[in-house]
Design a protein that fits this description.
Layout: H1 2-18, H2 27-37, E1 52-55, E2 58-62, E3 75-79, H3 90-95, E4 109-112, E5 115-117, H4 122-130, H5 132-145, H6 147-153
Antiparallel strand pairs: 1-4, 2-3, 4-5
Helix pairs in contact: 4-5, 5-6
Length: about 160
């Protein structure tokens, strides 16, 4: 039994070295690379389906005093609406058959039928905006078929 485990643990290392892979990128590194690919692109209303609206986080100024501020100094706060699907990208979830990629609020949110969705890239936001029902229905179906996703995302 011990020999079996040692062989199975060594096999991936041999495969990696055979193909010149020294390490796997972390999730943060992969997300950073994807953000760089879409850098400079902005989400616009062109090609959006009826009822799909772009929403950006809104900064508000308040005159309340808080820790570390001088008396009477204004502060800024950003309003973040609650996100559907736990903030995960609905296009990645439906296209990747359950792939959970966190949405990036800086891209902008899309509101469809009173729910807000975040996306992992501008391209995915555009795909959703063109046909939101397709992605919402696919995401619901995938969540319903997978008990783990249903538990994680609450079946929303």
């Amino acid at each position: 039994m011990i020999a079996f485990f040692s062989l199975s643990l060594c096999a991936p290392k041999r495969l990696l070295s055979k193909y010149g892979v020294t390490r796997f990128p972390t999730d943060e590194e992969r997300l950073s690379e994807e953000r760089e690919r879409w850098a400079g692109e902005e989400l616009d209303a062109e090609g959006m389906a009826d009822g799909c609206v772009i929403v950006y986080p809104v900064e508000t100024t308040t005159a309340r005093n808080g820790a570390g501020r001088k008396k009477g100094a204004p502060s800024t706060a950003t309003h973040h609406p609650p996100l559907s699907l736990g903030g995960f990208c609905p296009v990645a979830l439906s296209s990747g058959r359950g792939l959970l990629l966190p949405g990036d609020r800086r891209i902008g949110l899309l509101r469809h039928r009173g729910r807000h969705y975040a996306f992992s890239s501008v391209g995915r936001a555009r795909r959703f905006g063109a046909d939101p029902e397709r992605f919402v229905d696919a995401a619901r179906r995938i969540i319903k078929e997978n008990a783990c996703l249903e538990h994680l995302l609450g079946g929303k």
